[in-house]
Specification:
By secondary structure, the protein is of the alpha+beta class. It contains 11 helices and 18 strands. Helix 3 packs across helix 11, helix 5 packs across helix 11 and helix 9 packs across helix 11. The structure holds zinc ion (ZN).
């Protein structure tokens, strides 16, 4: 009798789970080879052609400076929108800043394309790059600063991703933003993060693409099969009480940004067989920053996507030759096939996130002094089911998973809570899966510190 009972249970569980398991998505496979190298090249050629795009450069000229570059990007977004029947709205939020690298109050303006989600428009997936460029002296606003790789490559990638995704449906809202003021103090990232907060956006992910077009390291290594994804381990705005809880119960490598990085890594494994994500457990490169930082400070999940091997003779350099070395960020340093792969990774990630349900909220784990672990969560709209995940506490990626159906809790028999890290994802009826959410405030994808009042705060 017990054996039969078990078999019946297993069969019931299997048929229920079958309806909610993540599945292969032909639409994501199609995006893998969709980015056009010609489009990417045309965009970078055009941006380099504005001479300099320094944040303090001319804003009136139609041919040179940051103003002309901004207006051209805006016209590109408008053309893409025209081709999709007006599916994209273009906004240009701006603020005035002054600081060490902007002595006079300077208007910093972002050019932002918004493709509203059909079902869940307040949930927002953001892709950013920065339009501004610089040479050796960060205050030099007049010398030629082509910025082909830093960061016309990121802007080209996001315009191409916008073009590709403009032709497809999205449940969550997609945002493609060319930021300014990065080199003067991450101002454009702040402008967009403030805009997101002011408009009540629930930003689920910001993919900041900065320096994504070069495949030859300064030391001569050539590698066009790898991209780095940097993610913070613990939330930038974690409170002292949240940190106390997290230190004891775990979560130091499970911020939503880190689980977003794991999600991107898995998508690359599934849909880009010739391309690897190297996850780096850091907010950014050593001692350097990027526009993901203002989003993290605002309490949103964010990662930095950047090339695997940098060439510093091409970054932030006056154009010159010295000792047989060519200095400067010129277009001949771009590997367009590589940039197309990075663009595909972003487009696939945005499509997958925007079609999946929101990540579960209120995720909690219980099971001290017990042989089983119980996970619980709040159901989210549009989820047809959920998956629980666990991994060894020293493992980088989720190792085990189980589809548990359209329920709000699950018991993992003979999985001892002490020995594993746990998480929960949501799955749509057509098999799109959200990122995995680690229990408690440490892992919540809800804008932090908003989760402090929820049940997950214990
Ligand atoms: Zn940059």
């Amino acid at each position: 009798m017990p054996v039969l009972f078990f078999l019946l249970l297993a069969a019931a569980g299997a048929s229920q789970a079958a309806t909610v398991a993540p599945s292969e998505q032909p639409a994501l496979h199609a995006l893998a080879n969709a980015p056009s190298e010609a489009e990417l090249r045309a965009t970078i050629t055009r941006l380099v052609g504005f001479g300099t795009r320094h944040t303090l450069s001319d804003t009136k000229s139609d041919t040179r400076g940051i103003g002309a570059a901004r207006r051209w990007v805006k016209s590109r977004f408008e053309a893409i929108s025209h081709d999709c029947g007006g599916c994209i709205e273009v906004v240009t939020p701006s603020q005035k800043f002054s600081g060490k690298r902007a002595p006079q109050p300077t208007e910093v303006m972002d050019v932002v394309a918004i493709k509203r989600g059909k079902r869940d428009p307040n949930r927002v997936i953001v892709m950013t790059g920065h339009l501004d460029s610089r040479v050796t002296d960060v205050m030099n606003a007049t010398s030629d600063a082509p910025g082909a790789n830093d960061d016309a490559s990121g802007v080209a990638a996001l315009i191409e991703a916008a073009r590709l995704l403009s032709k497809q449906d999205n449940d969550a809202t997609l945002v493609f933003a060319a930021l300014s003021g990065e080199e003067q103090g991450l101002y454009g990232g702040k402008v967009l993060a403030d805009y997101a907060v002011a408009h009540g956006w629930q930003v689920e992910a910001q993919l900041n693409n900065d320096i994504v077009g070069n495949s030859q390291g300064q030391n001569g290594v050539i590698d066009n099969t790898r991209v780095r994804v940097f993610s913070e381990g613990t939330k930038s705005n974690e409170t002292a009480a949240q940190a106390d809880y997290r230190r004891y119960h775990g979560g130091e490598v499970d911020s939503p940004s880190r689980n977003l990085a794991r999600y991107i890594d898995r998508l690359a494994d599934s849909y880009l067989p010739d391309f690897q994500v190297r996850m780096v457990y850091r907010t950014d490169r050593y001692g350097r920053g990027g526009d993901q930082v203002p989003f993290l400070e605002a309490g949103y999940p964010a990662v930095r996507v950047t090339e695997a091997h940098e060439n510093y003779t091409r970054q932030h350099q006056d154009l010159r030759s010295e000792g047989g070395v060519h200095y400067g960020d010129t277009i001949d340093g771009i590997d367009f096939r590589y940039l197309a792969r990075v663009t595909a990774l972003n487009a696939i990630t945005m499509a997958a996130l925007s079609r999946a349900p929101a990540p579960p909220t209120g995720v909690d784990s219980q099971g001290a002094v017990a042989t089983d672990t119980t996970l619980s969560w709040h159901k989210v709209p549009a989820a047809a089911g959920y998956r629980v995940h666990w991994r060894d506490t020293t493992a980088a990626q989720w190792q085990h998973q189980r589809a548990v159906g359209d329920v709000d809790h699950a018991v993992l028999q003979d999985v001892v809570i002490d020995d594993w890290f746990f998480g929960v994802s949501s799955v749509s009826a057509d098999g799109y899966e959200s990122p995995v959410v680690f229990p408690g405030d440490a892992g919540s994808f809800e804008r932090s510190p908003a989760a402090a009042s929820s049940s997950a705060g214990r």
